[in-house]
Amino acid sequence: MKSALFVLSFLFSTLTLLAQTASTGLRGTVKNAKGDPLPYAAIIVKGTPTGTISNDEGRFEIALAPGKYNIVFQYLGFQTIQKPVEIETGFTTLDVTLEEQALRLAEVQTKAGNEDPAYTIMRRAIAKSRYHQLQVLRFKARVYTKSSVTVLDIPKLAEMAFKKQLKEAERDANFKVGVPILNETVAEVAFSMPNTYRQKIIANRNSSGDFLSPSRFYNASFYNPEIGGTVSPLSPKAFAYYKFEYKGTFREPGPNGEPIEISKIQVIPRQFGEGVFRGTIYILENSWAIHSLQLETVTNIGITIGVNHICSPVQGVWMPANQRYTGSGSYLGVRASGYYVRNLTFSEFVVNPAFAADIEVADEKKGAPATTLSKKDIKGSQLEDVVKKQKEFSTKNLRQLVKEYEKQEKEARKKRKEDVTVVRDDSLVVDSLARKRTNVFWDSLRSVPLTTNEAKSYKKADSLGLVREIKAPGTDTTRSDSTTRRRNRNKFSAGQLLFDYTWRPSKFTTLQYGGPLSRIEYNTVEGYAVESSLTLRYRPKVDSISRFMQIPLSEWTVGGNLRYQFGRKQFVGYGQAGYQHKSTRINVSGGRYLYQFNPDNPISPALNTFTTLLFEQNLAKLYQKDYLNVTFSAAPFENRLSFVGSLEYAQRSELANFKENIKPWFNWKNREFTSNRPDNAEVETTTFPIHNALVLNLTASAKLGTTEYIIRNGRRIARRDNDAPQLTLNYRKGMADLDYDFAQATISHSFETGIRSRLNYQLSAGTFLNDRKLYLPDFKHFAGNEFFFQQGDVVSTYRLLPYYQYSTGKRFFEGHVLAEFRKFFVTQLTLMRLIGLKENLFVHYLYTPASRNYTEVGYGLDGLIPQVLPFFRVEVISQWQDAKYQGLGFRIGTTLKFGR
Residue 107 has what DSSP assignment? Predict the structure, then answer.
């Protein structure tokens, strides 16, 4: 759920320990005039960093020391009120009723063609959005977060098929349809400009198990151009995706007691669907900051996501201290709903001195400011100096000023020898007691009271935890039955030899076994074949982030595979050993095994088994290698470059079908099993003698342009959404009984062309510099497909190309282009976009001396069966050679990354 703003949740968490137990404070209920509770209303203790949110039942609770306070109550669409209260002993009760907000309309000219006043408000807010982001130099905060997910319905078929597992889940993990699964987190969060985030989880509790779920995305802001992959209404490109309507203005007391004006703006997407919001945003007049918002969007699988933010002033900067996210919908027939709330309290807040002075921004479309700056006036100028001289700027000048400031800051960071390619530096620390906090501890920290159902869910989870505790005989310690299950798991039984199984002999050691019944295959060379594997992994070095994400710093592996071929009545297999430290790995393997002529495996063994047994199509073509291989891979220069090198010595043998006249399960008319010798248009025969091959293979890959990185607990990771093209160079040399040199260059690129729209391309060219002696395994092969089900990378895989017909031992050029559209043909209809359909067009081209300019042009529709099987796609493809039409084909595929 890549775009799901719900994911933005599991981030934040913190509410400092006010005391070991909160003995005094304020509690109550927030309702409307009809007496209905107002869920998730903001309650702020004026003049302090303390605040909270009411729960789903409208109840709230704040721990406060004895004294006099002014309490501010806020709720979207209702008038903000302030109530004085005095805390003495115990908890004081204060119930409030909020009245609906009365809006007044600004004086608007009504003549034809007059622009809605929302546009001038939004132009100013958009121009000043980056300014508001840069106002925060650093802060420390304490955050309390609570999420609740409830599975509302499961398909009857799944309920019957997994009846036993559902019973076990209810017994062991407190999971049940209709019962909320809760997660609460308390954390200490710190931010410092430009990109450093520190988070310490001090408490975590879950009603359905003992796990943590904090998120790295805890600084998401609607001042960003995108949030969760969805275009913000304050994005510089917002007018291309939204229309805005002015709904009125209201007044409420400001932080210094003076009234402030807030405008209500309706956000209307030009085409609603994935990647855009709809709803309401409230903008503060004159400062043009976000006061609050209530928006919703949908994900690519049809889940509706709601977002509510209420901002509060902190030293003049309006910050989203109270946030709520909701999600509802169904996926694969499972219907669920959930919410996530976040309450943030600042303990330290420092405003960036360069942005301390508030400035006016004029909409030049309504009237230019008294003075307009030129590029020459802005270039090289200090922002503080310019602001002192001029208080009002045009939207254009303000954007230029902010860009100049960011440019200067980047240069200053370079001079300080800071790495400007790092766009985010995260640190996550989990307190050792985080999952062991008592109910008393939680009651002292919880700023959003539990609802009745949530309290029942925790009560059942706690009782299950007591039942699971087992007194260890002869000692005063206890252990859970999960520990017992782990110990029992390491015990050996004969049944474990048939299926996959994993033993954990020690804390750092894992023994993984692949049973023969887990991998049964069939092809016309081996007949039926079964395979078993055994791999021992040792991970001696672990850091804190590795423990949390299960990623080792280093790893030793040793193991092997044993395969029995029933048709050939013999065993084959290989052994391997490897060592990895961070991104550097060396691996040694050797033995006797069968491989496809195309080393990229254009058809998987499982799919070939399916096509051979059911459709009388033996598509995989195999040969045998007795080999020894050494492979080394590394990512030097801080992962800016990746390198893979291998040296292999092998005796290679041609194989035939294990017998003649193999009988299929189903005898299809006009079909019969073919020879294991592929057909090729470039040579008369692809047969080859038994020969020895020494092959050196070198590959280097790098991004063209600056690669940006994210640091997580000291680990440097290249950003996956880096839009820079990637260049890959490959050199291969054949020796021993071979004599050839092959070189190839590939450039690939993927970049956004709009909301949920991308253009992907891959271009490759290569040649055999020397082709004195080589055989079919040494040819350049291409990612073809001969079955109606499409596997592999959707960008670089041909849909109708035979696997080996145009494999070449000479030279080649191939090009692939795939354009993905959020709105194209059938998706012009809003309903089609809302159910998750996506269209794409693609072109695949191949030149070899024999291919006659082979070309495929196709159309694809993703989300073939919306809501049920949303990851399937259907394609129609036309086939051409030398610009002459050859035929039409259809393919069923998947958007999942199988085999890619």
Answer: P
User: Omega of the bond prior to 194 within 30 degrees of 0, cis?
Assistant: yes
| Cβ-count burial 26-57 (b if 16+ within 10 Å, e if not) | bbbbbbbeeeeebbbbbbbbbeebbbbbbbbb
Distance CA 38, CA 347 (A): 28
Whole-structure pTM value: 0.73
CA 182 to chain CA centroid, Å, is: 22
Strands 25-32 and 96-98, by their bridges, are parallel
| pLDDT for 322 | 82
Question: Would you state the pLDDT for residue 418?
Answer: 85
Q: Which of 637-646, 736-745, 810-819 shows the lowest mean pLDDT across its residues?
A: 637-646
Report the Cα–Cα distance between both ends of the chain, in Å, rounded.
20
Half-sphere exposure of 622 (CA within 13 A, CB side): 22
518 secondary structure, DSSP code? G
Digit-coded pLDDT (tens) for 209-251: 544 443 433 457 899 888 877 899 999 999 989 999 999 998 8
Alpha-carbon span 665 to 659, nearest angstrom: 16
The tokens describing 558, both together, are 């040793």
- Residue 109: is its pLDDT beyond 50? no
Q: Cα dist. 3→228, 230, 299 in Å?
A: 5, 7, 6
> 63, 86, 72, 68: which is closest to 15 by C-alpha?
63
E strands along 566-640, which residues? 570-581, 584-596, 622-634
Which pLDDT band, with edges at 50, 70 and 90, does 489 fall under? low
Look at 457-466, 550-559, 560-569, 722-731 and tell me which has the smallest mean pLDDT. 457-466
pLDDT in tens, 303-317: 888 998 888 888 888
Residue recorded with tokens 């509802």: 328
Kindly list the distances between the CA atom of residue 464 and the CA atoms of 458, 467, 626, 725, in Å, as whole numbers in the listed order.
10, 5, 56, 53
Q: Do the Cβ atoms of 622 and 598 come closer than 8 Å?
A: no
- For 273-312, b/e burial (b = at least 16 CB within 10 A) is bbbbbbbbbbbbeebbbbbbbbbbbbbbbbbebbbbbbbb
What kind and span of H or E run contains 332?
Answer: none
Which residues are CB-neighbours of 253 under 8 A, at least 6 positions away?
80, 82, 259, 260
Residue 462 confidence (pLDDT): 59
